[in-house]
Amino acid sequence: MGDWVRIGKVNSVDDVNGMVKILYTDSGEKVSANWFPFLANGEYRMPRIGEMVITVHPGGTEKGICIGTVWNKEHAPGMTKGDFKKEMTDGCSAFATKEDMTFTTPSGSISVSDLLRMKEKIEQLSKYH
Q: What are the beta bridge partners of residue 89?
């Protein structure tokens, strides 16, 4: 990949400005001197310190853009074909299969099928009141 595209780990995060500094282990544990913008795609989800990322450097190695996180041995998706997973923030995620979708927060999880069953029960109870 050379110096134009590199793999590293997030060393520091500037949440307010959407920037990261990267630790490159391929160059003797060197941290980027400059902050790199993190690619947004219209969403806000900054990577965590230590997450593996890919950076591109069209203007040289000291300037670049962090284009995203990378699944790896330490951070594997644990999914099967056809599944969808969206990690939003610490402890919050959405997971979908062909059959159902589950939303998880630090206080617990609930699936769409559970919500639909609850809706049916509420509708049944409202018939009696």
A: 92
